[in-house]
Design brief:
Elements (H helix, E strand, L loop, with lengths): L9 H17 L4 E8 L2 E9 L12 E2 L3 H15 L23 H6 L24 H5 L16 H15 L3 H10 L19 E3 L6 E3 L15 E2 L1 H13 L7 H8 L12 E3 L4 E5 L2 E10 L2 E8 L4 E7 L7 H15 L15 H6 L1 E5 L2 E7 L5 E5 L7 E5 L5 E3 L8 E6 L5 E6 L2 E4 L22
Antiparallel strand pairs: 1-2, 1-11, 3-6, 4-5, 7-8, 8-9, 9-10, 10-11, 12-13, 12-19, 13-14, 14-15, 15-16, 16-17, 17-18, 18-19
Helix pairs in contact: 1-9, 2-5, 2-6
């Protein structure tokens, strides 16, 4: 059977085209191109308007603004996964001498370090990076505008520092690291720091008349990790597939799931939005979207993903303001998800299983609450409550025979397997929570003990 994804239904494709065309007209955008990715492959791509007299296709470059930050976050988390740094490390541990040296790397990724939103001096997005030749020039004398950890405060200089951190740890320019560690493995040949033809020009549209003003496309220098990249709908569709499924040559799927978890609080007036590690989060009805919006003078862009639906969308346009790329991308994703709900892949038996894991499979009880432990195809375990509302988690094996929780209440907690003198499993201990084969089994060391009279009748 072919693994090629099924085409979208004609009615769905027309609905997507209608949203794209309406968005381009209402947003008065010179051009816009969009794509939908489902189950790891692009299933729809279309463009409206013109670039150099032609309707844009998936190979036309646009500036993607702050989507660049997600690329930088992937580079930083690669360093973390390699053991070269920790998210709790202070910036000074690896990049000494900046005015933000006490900020942790995790706080910079989540925009909770309390740093200023913008670099001092003239608007950095429209002025050359030569005006800010040193890291001190992108921070100023006192970049701290909020106490660290108090709130989410978006900081472009914070991601400039993360780019400099990548350079310092890797020992070469962050753009080279980006190309070698992300773009080349994923075959994203049309993503670059500088534009390469065919590419769109950036435009501002007059608010009250249908006339255009060209926007400058400057090299932002040290601020480049905050928003310099150019890319195409084809390349970003590839990136969306990576963000959904991972690629062990670049970043494991579990680390990408970590990036999607909320890492900073939303504003009190905006509970439908949040921020993970280099990823924006958006709640649309009951659907959690993760990705990033982006803007630079003359350009707006968005990528959104829904891991639950295995769906992603891309929107690129060459207009400064007017077209709500983030809303349009979310609308496109929701259109496909609602009209064509995901069909799960067929069930298949495990290709192989360790007999010790098979021995662990089945029901377990915390107190009287039933859980089931299942081996997964990737060698991990899943602990799930049999009745709704319990605390479940996915568990990753460690070399010492323990397992580490990856999500939910047990994220980061260790599960250890306890056996008796014969080698039979007696109980599991997950972060001091004891799981037994029977409710309050008397043999394992239940905290507080079990009444020796056992279960009683009324």
């Amino acid at each position: 059977m072919s693994s090629t994804p099924a085409d979208l239904l004609p009615e769905t494709r027309r609905a997507l085209l209608h949203k794209l065309a309406t968005g381009q007209v209402k947003g008065r955008a010179p051009s816009v191109v969009a794509a939908v990715v489902r189950d790891g492959s692009p299933v729809w791509l279309d463009g409206r308007g013109t670039v150099d007299g032609q309707v844009p296709d998936g190979d036309v470059q646009y500036r993607i603004g702050s989507i660049t930050k997600t690329f930088v976050a992937v580079l930083v988390l690669r360093l973390r996964d390699e053991g070269k740094l920790a998210l709790t490390d202070q910036l000074d541990d690896h990049l000494p001498g900046t005015a933000a040296g006490r900020a942790t790397i995790g706080a910079l990724l989540a925009h909770t370090a309390g740093l200023a939103s913008e670099a001092p001096g003239p608007w950095w997005e429209r002025t050359p990076g030569t005006l800010r030749p040193e890291l001190t020039d992108i921070l100023g004398d006192d970049p701290q505008v909020h106490p660290a950890g108090e709130r989410h405060h978006y900081s472009n200089p914070g991601f400039a520092l993360l780019g400099a951190l990548v350079e310092r740890v890797r020992g070469r320019a962050w753009g080279e690291v980006l190309r070698h560690e992300i773009l080349e493995p994923l075959a994203m040949t049309r993503t670059s720091l500088q534009p390469s033809a065919p590419h769109a020009a950036g435009w501002a549209v007059h608010p009250w008349a249908d006339v255009l003003l060209p926007e400058p496309a400057v090299d932002t220098g040290l601020m480049a990790p905050a928003g310099q990249l150019w890319s195409t709908a084809n390349d970003l569709a590839t990136f969306v597939a990576f963000l959904l499924d991972g690629d062990d040559r670049v970043l494991h799927a579990d680390t990408l799931a970590e990036m999607r978890r909320p890492a900073s609080p939303p504003e009190a007036t905006s509970w439908d939005g949040g921020y993970g590690l280099g990823m924006q989060l958006l709640r649309r009805d009951d659907r959690l979207l993760a990705g990033h919006t982006g803007s630079m003078p003359g350009f707006v862009a968005t990528v959104w993903t829904s891991a639950e639906d295995s769906l992603g969308t891309v929107v690129l346009s060459n207009v400064t303001t007017g077209l709500p790329a983030g809303t349009l991308a979310a609308d496109l994703l929701q259109t496909v998800a609602d009209r064509e709900p995901r069909i799960p892949p067929p069930w298949r038996p495990l290709p192989s299983i360790d007999p010790l894991l098979l021995d662990l499979a089945g029901p377990w009880y915390w107190a009287t609450a039933p859980f089931v432990l299942r081996p997964l195809p990737d060698g991990y375990l899943e602990l799930a409550p049999l009745a709704g509302g319990g605390r479940g988690t996915r568990l990753r094996p460690a070399t010492d025979g323990t397992w580490t929780g990856l999500n939910g209440y047990y994220a980061g907690e260790r599960l250890s397997i306890h056996r008796d003198a014969t080698g039979s499993v007696t109980h599991l201990d997950l972060g001091t929570f004891v799981f037994t084969r029977h409710p309050y089994a008397p043999e394992p060391p239940i905290p507080g003990g079990v009444d020796p009279t056992g279960w009683q009748t009324a």
